[in-house]
Amino acid sequence: MLTVALCKGKLIEPTLELFSRAGYGAARLATDSRRLVFSCPEIGITFLIVRPTDVPTYVEYGAADLGIVGKDVLLEQDSDVYEPLDLGFGACRIAVAALRGQESRDRLSSKIRIATKYPKITERYFNQRGVPVEIIKLYGSIELAPIVGLADRIVDLVETGNTLKAHDLVEVECIALSTARLIVNRASLKLKHRAVTELVKKLRAACAASKRPGKAASPKISREAGRRKKRTRV
Questions:
Q1: How many domains does the chain divide into?
Q2: How many CA atoms lie within 13 A of 149 on its CB side?
Q3: Looking at residue 116, which CATH number applies to its domain?
Q4: Global pTM value
Q5: Residue 68: is it exposed, middle or buried by C-beta count within 10 angstroms (0-12/13-18/19+)?
Q6: Predicted confidence (pLDDT) per residue in 137-167, tens digit
Q7: What does the DSSP 8-state code read for residue 137?
Q8: Do 186 and 168 share a structural domain?
């Protein structure tokens, strides 16, 4: 049996759809249930439903053989896991934002104050640019910080940008792009090599199939159809 950690939230539905397309029939999991463990012996997998920030921990310490989580979480935690596959869905970007009209305005003090739930990503990014910052760790409502004067900038996950616009914020810089990733425990890759590699292979094939464009009708067929339609009218 393989144990796979799935994260709650926006990624759960596309994740279950991917497993279903890969032939693992995971779509029957009741995502609205309070259950956190779903054993599926018929496909040889037990699914764990956990918080996104906990997925890398479950995988790194061997409580789960594999997991699916956003790249933003992996960049922030820097966990010791194997990352074999970019699943492509859940696309977002980790961005720096500021109040409209204050995009280029810095504090009079030596440091720019930044509110974020990604302190490690933020510190690493601005250190690489040689910009001194003071980081304020928040767990939610990040957009409120510049409005009330708590911070000059925010670093947050942005999908459509509508939340920023609603709070009169504008995106200043993009730090990194984030999509859902498959991660694997390094010991499981050795001890359960056959099962793990088979799962990775099937998920990779399912991802490739979903990205393949549909076949459009050839111009020749379209012209023939048009001629037949004209002849019918005559």
A1: 2
A2: 0
A3: 3.40.190.10
A4: 0.84
A5: buried
A6: 999 899 999 999 999 999 999 999 999 999 9
A7: E
A8: no
